[in-house]
Structure formats: structure tokens, C-alpha cells
């Protein structure tokens, strides 16, 4: 998959060196990720907006692996999510300080 592929109005983001980089370009903040290997993966956000930002990620965890989010992401109830294999999750990251910090929430297990 290439980053510039657009499916259902969401960019497909491949892992590069076990990192999913979410480029905030042209205020486009909707992404799809298919995790298809068991390596630990890291999420990164490039070009954070200087404005308030909402990021939506549809995450298909086809193979179980550990996900590491940036240190500036805090999670609802202080609990970093763990994702089961062969499930789909929606992850939401919201920043109201121009990308300095993000509040994270998730739902899923479909």
C-alpha cells in the first residue's frame, strides 16, 4: 500500500520500519491501517496542525502486536489500549493546543 491511496475518504497508511506515520496534510485527518505482522509498531504524527485537530484511525489488527503511541497522547481514564488480533478498532486523537498534546479514546473489538 502507498500512502497516497485513498479508500472511503481515508488514507491507507503502511508501516515503514515498524512505524505508522500519520501525516497531517491539507487538514486531512482520517486514516486506515492494516496491521499484518506481529512486530511492535510505533505511531507517529508528522506535520501536526497549529490548529485544533481531530484524527480518526480505523485500525484493523489482523495480527496481534504491541502498539506504542507518542508520549504526548493521553488516554481516557489513563488506560493505554491493548488491541486483540483479528479485530477492528476506531481510534480518536484530539488536540486543542495545536498538536502539543492529544487526548485519545478508542472503541471497537469488532
Mean pLDDT: 85
Q: Pairing-aware structural class of the strands and helices?
A: mainly beta
**Which radius of gyration do the C-alpha atoms yield?**
13 Å
Principal-axis shape equals globular
Distance between the termini: 23 Å
Strand order of the largest sheet: 1-2-4-6-9-10-8
Query: What string gives the helices and strands in order?
Result: EEEEEEEEEE
DSSP strand count: 10
Unreliable stretches: none
Please give the count of helices: 0
- Biggest β-sheet strands, sense, barrel: 7 strands, mixed
Fraction of helical residues: under 10%
Sheet-strand content, in percent, reads: over 45%
What's a concise summary of this model?
This protein has about 110 residues and is mainly β.
Walkthrough of the structure:
- The chain has 110 residues and is mostly beta strands.
- It has no helices and 10 strands.
- Strands 1-2-4-6-9-10-8 form a 7-stranded mixed β-sheet, with no helix packed on it. Strands 3-5-7 form a 3-stranded parallel β-sheet, with no helix packed on it.
- A hairpin with a 6-residue loop joins strand 9 and strand 10.
- The chain is globular.
- The two termini are 23 Å apart.
- The mean pLDDT is 85.
Can you lay out the helices and strands and say which pair or pack?
Elements: E1 6-7, E2 10-12, E3 19-23, E4 30-35, E5 41-46, E6 53-61, E7 67-68, E8 73-75, E9 87-95, E10 102-108
Parallel strand pairs: 2-4, 3-5, 4-6, 5-7, 8-10
Antiparallel strand pairs: 1-2, 6-9, 9-10
List keywords for this structure.
single chain, 110 residues, mainly beta, seven-stranded mixed β-sheet, three-stranded parallel β-sheet, 10 strands, globular
Amino acid at each position: 500500500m502507498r500512502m497516497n491511496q485513498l479508500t472511503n475518504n481515508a488514507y491507507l497508511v503502511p508501516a515503514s520500519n515498524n512505524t505508522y506515520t500519520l501525516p497531517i496534510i491539507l487538514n486531512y485527518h482520517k486514516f486506515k491501517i492494516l496491521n499484518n505482522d506481529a512486530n511492535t509498531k510505533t505511531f507517529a504524527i508528522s506535520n501536526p496542525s497549529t490548529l485544533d485537530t481531530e484524527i480518526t484511525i480505523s485500525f484493523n489488527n489482523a495480527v496481534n502486536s504491541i502498539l506504542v503511541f507518542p508520549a504526548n497522547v493521553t488516554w481516557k481514564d489513563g488506560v493505554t489500549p491493548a488491541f486483540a488480533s483479528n479485530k477492528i478498532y476506531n481510534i480518536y486523537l484530539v488536540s486543542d493546543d495545536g498538536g502539543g498534546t492529544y487526548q485519545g479514546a478508542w472503541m471497537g473489538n469488532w
